[in-house]
Amino acid sequence: MQLHSLSRSPAIACFSDFDGTVTDEDSNDFMIDNMGMGRLARRELLLKVLNEGLPFREAFRAMIASVAANYSFPECCAKVKEANIKLDPGFKAFYEFVRAKGIPFVLISSGMTPIIRSIVGTLIGKEEASKITIIANDVDIWDESGSAGNWGVKFRHPDSPFGHDKDVAISDFKAQDPNIITFFCGDGLSDMSAARSATMREGSGDDLAAHCEKEDIPFEGFRNFHEVRKSVEAVLDGRIQASDLCAGRAGGTIVS
Ligand SMILES: [Mg+2]
């Protein structure tokens, strides 16, 4: 992956989780809660990831398998489209901002690429969606149609306990420019692998915030991408150091 802004000072790259961060609702959670094991069982597994060392990969594999046991993959895609998942109210303005400034932006997700592409295309239009770099897990289909019981998540990094180690994409940029400032936006436990490597983390969800607090990782809470844009803009303009964006759950270091 090539950097586009190495001449900029400071060089910045932005990464974001997709489900529940760029969108108001997590499409995986929607499927698991409504079509698979249900919310209670999902939360029990996530608590085991957070507190008992269960690899996120195994938790997520089991969650998706519970959906796949009941529904075909095409049925899942259709149900997620019907779920009326909405874009974060500030995302479009944020995306236009980073594009105008030549700041690389990458979606890094533990979700499955075909579902993410479908949702992004619906939300911002297929042409714009095709310009966004998406690095995600994929889907494994074991028969011709992905019928119930014949599909599952195909992990990008099957040997990693995260299934998709989001740090790899961030480290790739850092390898090209060790001084680059990397922003990562996320909300859930699938973002744990990225939380430590990024210069700044923004957590809008309780799970990632709880992880950062437990591991003593500084982060800046945010409510929407309008706030993220303000933070990135302030660092870009030299009004604040990225390391000073560390207000925890309350966020709000940049107020205007
Ligand atoms: Mg998420």
From TrEMBL:
Which PANTHER family does the UniProt entry name for this protein? PHOSPHORIC MONOESTER HYDROLASE (PTHR28181:SF2), UPF0655 PROTEIN YCR015C (PTHR28181)
> Which Pfam families does this UniProt record tie to the protein?
HAD (PF12710)
Protein name per UniProt: HAD-like domain-containing protein
Keywords, A to Z, come to: Hydrolase
Signal peptide start and end residues? none
Q: Name one GO molecular function term.
A: phosphatase activity
